[in-house]
Amino acid sequence: MRSQVLVIRAEIDARPEALGAVMSAVAAGGAEVVGVDVVGATKTTVVRDLTVQAGDEEAAVAVAEALKAMDGVKVLDVTDRVFQAHEGGKLTMRNRAALTSRDDLSMAYTPGVARVCMAIHHDFDKAWEFTIKGNSVMVVSDGSSVVGQGDLGPLASLPVCEALCMFMKELAGIDAFPLPIDAKGPAEISTHVERISSVFAGVHLADISAPACFDILTDLGARLEIPVFHGDQEGTAASLLAGLINGLKVTGKELRDARVVVCGLGPGGQATARLLVAAGVGEVLACDRRGAVHKDRADMDERLAWIAEHTNSEGLTGSVHELIRGADAFIGLSVPDLLSAADVATMAKDPIVFGLAMPNPELDPDTAGAAAVFGTGRPDLPNQINSTLAFPGIWRGAIDVRATRINDAMVMAAANAIASVVEQEGALSADYVVPSVFNKALVPAVANAVRVAAQASGVARIATVSA
């Protein structure tokens, strides 16, 4: 998958063969020109913006250097489009109330604002109605596990937190704020978040390494009366369960009869295993680099012990290559290129493979034909599965009812709603088991299901009319 995109502004001799030579030089460097725009021209030269796509940063830099060395070519500027998209940050703030006159000022600030302050003083619940609190989420990271790059520190997590805020605003109309926390240890992080939580309707955890992410989720959940949600856990699990529900429909199988292997037991893998058990999957087998999780395995923490107690009823041992034999589905949150077509051939008829390892899935896409249904986390392949399918709608529904928690019932409802969007379109197929994150029906469907589940499970502060 090509991942590096540069815009190279070059002044090129106005000779018919000059542009062709540039294109050939780019191709010789293993890259591709995907766009050419004329910026200006003289009788002897043409200034063009060349949009160049390369496999990685090293290849992109090599292409730019090769063009600089060419006769008849003067490189004026090289812009990385990714950095260009982030320049100045990806977020801004806008006022909802007008401020164009003295009258506007008197209502927004003194003397009018004092009345609203006093109303909240007498009834704190009014803050939900008359301040930003009622539609806001805090996006928190300590930067200890930034998009698979490791511990980069809290400030380096800010671009990721901004992106999550973008998704919530664009897809669900939620005012989310990026707040990296410069603290170490679950207790200290939880304390910092707790102290500033009064402004928010919920806390969204992101890019926090295990086991701290588990402890923070539990600790904050106990301290706060607003939902605390970890997108890498519950969001990933809901999206995978949705894909599995529809994948099994494509292959003519039932959830209650399915044998599913979950490989990789980080935050997403553990949450997925727990949700599959709650959903009533026939048999769940979980494994990590040490092999199968089973009751007799040594050195398990309490979370793995729970998985061992509720999965693998036959007490199977061995590696993923052994566990996968006869399985109806494989869910990978582990490492690239773990499986081969030969592994998939040992699975049950019409197997489902969801490989979410990055940058490449557990099964090479060139051999994906070995699976009846194939999904990854990549946007350039069918069935892209990631937490963005779930969390904007989950938060929209939770905020609408002023939920105190996001519980398993709400996550389960979200998974079923995601799956239902595809089925209701009548478009279910092997290449379409989950909707696009931009599907207009997705967030409303998930939000409505989450509102209903929150009210039914007793965590909603208010009732809303179902959409």
Helix content: 25-40%
What is the CATH fold-level name of the largest domain?
Rossmann fold
Structural class: alpha/beta
Rg is 25 Å
CATH class category label of the largest domain: Alpha Beta
Into which percentage range does the β-strand content fall?
Answer: 15-25%
TL;DR of this structure?
The chain has 467 residues and is α/β, with parallel strands linked by helices.
Give the SSE layout.
Blueprint: E1 4-13, H1 16-28, E2 32-41, E3 45-54, H2 57-68, E4 73-80, H3 81-86, H4 102-108, H5 112-122, H6 127-130, E5 136-141, H7 158-172, E6 175-180, H8 186-195, E7 202-205, H9 212-223, E8 228-230, H10 231-250, E9 259-263, H11 267-279, E10 283-288, E11 291-292, H12 302-310, H13 320-323, E12 329-332, H14 341-345, E13 352-355, E14 373-376, H15 391-400, H16 408-425, H17 442-456
Parallel strand pairs: 5-6, 5-7, 7-8, 9-10, 9-12, 12-13, 13-14
Antiparallel strand pairs: 1-3, 1-4, 2-3, 10-11
Helix pairs in contact: 7-15, 8-9, 10-11, 10-16, 11-12, 15-17, 16-17
Would you give an account of this structure?
There is one protein chain. With 467 residues, the protein is an alpha/beta fold. It folds into 3 domains: 4-86, 2-Layer Sandwich (Alpha-Beta Plaits), CATH 3.30.70.260; 138-226, Malic enzyme, N-terminal domain (Rossmann fold), CATH 3.40.50; 234-467, NAD(P)-binding Rossmann-like Domain (Rossmann fold, 3-Layer(aba) Sandwich), CATH 3.40.50. 39% of the residues lie in helices and 18% in strands. It contains 17 helices and 14 strands. The protein has helices at residues 16-28, 57-68, 81-86, 102-108, 112-122, 127-130, 158-172, 186-195, 212-223, 231-250, 267-279, 302-310, 320-323, 341-345, 391-400, 408-425, 442-456; strands at residues 4-13, 32-41, 45-54, 73-80, 136-141, 175-180, 202-205, 228-230, 259-263, 283-288, 291-292, 329-332, 352-355, 373-376. The chain has a 6-stranded mixed sheet with strand order 11-10-9-12-13-14, covered by helices on one side. Strand 7 (202-205), helix 9 (212-223) and strand 8 form a beta-alpha-beta unit. Helix 7 crosses helix 15, helix 8 runs parallel beside helix 9 (212-223) and helix 10 (231-250) crosses helix 11 (267-279). The protein is globular, with a radius of gyration of 25 Å. The model has no long low-confidence stretch (mean pLDDT 93).
